[in-house]
Structures
1.
Amino acid sequence: MKALVIGGGGREHAIVWKLMQSRHVDKVYCMPGNAGIAEIAECIDVHSLDFNKLVDFVRYEWVDLTIVGPEGPLSGGIVDAFEREGRRIVGSTKMATQLESSKVFAKEFMKRYRIPTAEYKVFTSYIHAEEYVRMKGLPIVIKADGLAAGKGVFVASRAEEVVDALRLVMKERIFGDAGNRVIVEQYLEGEEVSFMAFTDGSTIIPMVSSQDYKRVFDNDEGPNTGGMGAYSPAPVITRELESIIMERIMRPAISGLKAMGIKYKGVLYAGLIIDNGNPYVLEFNCRFGDPEAQSILSRLNTDIMDISMAITDERLSDINIEWSDEAAVCVVLASEGYPGKYKRGKVIHGLNDVRDMDDVVVFHAGTAFNDNEIITKGGRVLGVTATGKDINGAKERSYEAVKRIHFEGMHYRKDIANKALNRQ
Ligand SMILES: Nc1ncnc2c1ncn2[C@@H]1O[C@H](COP(=O)(O)OP(=O)(O)O)[C@@H](O)[C@H]1O
Ligand SMILES: [Mg+2]
């Protein structure tokens, strides 16, 4: 069979890599891909929002199944466009993706189906939002409604931060229409974790647990990023907590959508805060987290094509998903300046020195070819991912590989997976 993956980051590299291990798959295309993906798949150049062209491509190339990585094409309706033409695709429809693409939709949905989340109010007026913050006190959280590439949330502990956030989103409109509405919500204390599951709209199967590192510097300092690393399993998610999350959050989400006439197929991701054993939803995403996907997919033993086909055919209840007992750790190597304005075009050295290391895979994110060299092309450049018999082993292995790779201005966190180690 032939598969197509939409996207070009570390998450998509991990998906392509799993597809290449599938016993059903003999060819994988990726759109747009990156330099690492190009080593194992054929990268094609069609704009990810030009759905007609993409549908034409899968028709002419006889592509059997498409997997969508990022949220942009999902919220733009790629799944609807493919399904209209009878093409198999793994991902959520435009309606279902509102769970991610509109934070107001998600909050109202959670309220309606009693899914635990922070108390909140929605505003379209700056003055009323400011008034509400004054009444509620600090710290408080301000969120732009729409997609903002992970930059639309402000956790404010001082009054000036509130004023700045509201001004940027509501007056300067730095996120455009994504800032038409603003959520002001209660600040939640606790430990942050990600929880992901596969679903075909009825059956829902949790993945192994993971935790990612959002802040740019060690000890969770500095600004938020797309994610600087992740590890799996995350001991904070015990068996008991997993079943609480499934009962209070994941199942009600899928059945709530169903009750609204929305069938949800694909990956459902809940960003959670755990406070005294009780999970609260910060947000939903309609896709794999990145870099969580790199560590989680490294542990997946079941053929990803079997899972994907079961999702599109709505027979997920027929299959058993198996995971390796090993642990996985992914360390992201980022460009100088990231998550702010960053440099690009730097030559990456050492990739050949890690190629033959056992238990190590380097997933590419922002990389490109320049003649015979591989150069940086994004903020997050590589996700160095290792497996080991436990978190400690995986972590050591991953950092051993990191030491062999270098590009000018490269930076990374040195404490990935420490949260797991500190608990032991
Ligand atoms: N209610 C909240 N209380 C405490 N921290 C929050 C809250 N909401 C969001 N955050 C923090 O802000 C980050 C981004 O918020 P999130 O809702 O995940 O939006 P996005 O990923 O779209 O930027 C979270 O990962 C979390 O660290
Ligand atoms: Mg988030």
Note: Residues 271, 283 surround magnesium ion (ligand 2) (CB under 6 Å).
2.
Amino acid sequence: MTMIEFREVSKRFGKVEALKNASFEIPENTVTAFLGPNGAGKTTSMKLIMGFLKPSKGAVLVWGEEPWRNESIRSRIGYLPEKPVYPMDLTVEDFLSHLAGLRRLGRADVERVSRLVGLEKLMDRKIRSLSRGYLQRVGIAQSLLGEPELLILDEPTANLDPAARREILDVLKVLHKELKVSMIISSHIIPELQELSNYAIFIDKGTVLDYGYLNDLWRKYSVETVFTIEATDIETVAKQLIEKPFVHAIKRVSSGTLEVSIDPSHFKVFEALLTEINHKIRRYEFKTANLGDLYEKIVKSKP
Ligand SMILES: Nc1ncnc2c1ncn2[C@@H]1O[C@H](COP(=O)(O)OP(=O)(O)OP(=O)(O)O)[C@@H](O)[C@H]1O
Ligand SMILES: [Mg+2]
């Protein structure tokens, strides 16, 4: 089912047209990477979804309703703004309890969200004293209050050092795994969302370049896809794989690990094959580091 639909949406701020006739859909149960350079229109789109802004033209539909007309939509979405403002003198506990109170949520919800983002040991700390990474966890925690069906995270890793970025990405991974909540995550650092997302929207200067499931986009733009396979008997596994016409290359990266490049249009056949020889395989993982390649191809394919 469609969760979000933009129908020929334009949004104007005076002379600036932040979105130009933007149309896209986001289905339920997706983690969407919302990708584009500075000024592309990512934050504007997110604010339209939240109903903080009204389109100048066209319609934004969230679960079939227009959010600017129907504020109740907002209560089903958790939102981490691009530049959150926190009451620095409050403790983490007081801040989250205050927000929970405003929404008539109990203590249990505060405990739930702090556990989910790994803040439970820092509840007595003043917000002022937190590192940027932990401050961002507070932001994610508040977005989870009230058990939202969708999380909208506007550049959750911006202004973080590489270690903190990694931690936040891991927090988001765990959240997705535990809560099965849909997410829309914006970033202009393209590769970092790859491991998390299964859907993407590419936007530049207010124009939607393309969107869809990554599995379809790899294929559409012929982006080479690479899997890492860990196996007990890699020789036999390698022999079985290399016979297949859709396997382009196999590289042995360690005594128990292979990297296999495949034709992206044979994704499903490849996965079926792995299931078939499953007893020899310890683990396999979709590896491609090329959401960036995809972005390049999408940008270049447009006039
Ligand atoms: N309230 C506003 N008033 C005037 N112009 C605005 C306003 N909000 C956004 N814009 C303009 O709209 C365009 C799109 O901005 P937006 O913040 O949506 O981009 P973004 O993709 O989120 O960029 P970034 O990666 O820098 O966060 C920019 O040119 C921006 O300057
Ligand atoms: Mg932005």
Note: The CA atoms of residues 46 and 152 lie 7 Å apart.
